[in-house]
Amino acid sequence: MMRNTTSARGSTPARETGAQAWRTRAVVDPLFIFIAMGAVGVLFIVASVVMPPGSVPPASQPPSVTPYPTIPVVTTPFTTPTTIPTTTPVDPNRPYVDLYVMSYCPYGTQAETVMKPVVDLLGSKADIRIRFLTQVTGSTVDSVNSLHGPFEAEEDLRQACIQKYYPASFWTYLARFNSQCYPTSHTSSTASTCSHTVMSGLGITAATIDTCSTGPEGIGLLRADQLSSAAKGVNASPTLFIKGVKYTGAMSPNAYKQAICKAFITQPTECTTALSSTATGATGTC
What residues form DSSP beta bridges with 127? Predict the structure, then answer.
C-alpha cells in the first residue's frame, strides 16, 4: 500500500507558521506593553502640570459658600430670675407666716377667724399674710379660676388688693366680710355690693381697690400667690406655713400663737399672753 506522503508534507508548513506567530508575539507584546506604559506616564506628567496635586476638576468643584459669622462667646454667668416673691422679712427674728385660703371656703374663713386674735396680739412683730389659692391662666379677671366660682375669684382679688393698700384694716375687713357677706352674698353682684359696704365702713377707698382688683395689678398679686402655693405644694384651704414649715397642730388662737412664737429667735413679751384654746367646731379643707 502506498502511504499518503502528500498529507504529511502538507502539514509541515502549518506547524512552521504557528511557531513563527509565537516568535512574533513574543517580540511584539512586550513592545506594545512598553509603549502603553510610556503613554500613561506622559499623560500623568501632563496632568500634574495642568492640575497640581490637591486641585479638583472645575466640573466637580462645590459652589462657594459664605461662612457663618463668628458668634461671640458670652463669659458673663447666667442668673436665674426670681419668679416667686420672697416673704422673708428683713428682720430675721420676725417670723413670716403664710395662711393659704379661698375667700369663700368655710374652713378657710374659720382659719382666718382663728388667726385674727394672734394678729391683734403680735401686730407687726410677725409677718402674717393671707395667700389665695387660685389658678390664673391669663391677664384678665375672667382668667382667674377659683373653686367656688367667679364671685370668689373676684373677692380674692379685692382682698389681695386690700391687704396690699390697707394692711392695717385688712384683718378687720376679713372679720366683717366673713360675718356679713360670706353667709349670703354668693353672686358677683351681691358680693361686690356687700364688700363695698364693708370697705366704706372702714375708710377704705373703693375706687383704689376696684382699680387694683380689675386690672393687671390684682392679677399679678394672685399669680404671685399661685407661684408660692405651687412651690410649697399647697392645694387645700386652709394650709398654714410658719417660717417655711407646714403647721399640722390644733386650730385654735392659742395653738397658732404658740407655734408662731416658737419661730422667734427672741420671743417678745406678747408671747406670754394666753389666747383662747378653743378649737373650731368643724375641721376640713376645700
Answer: 96
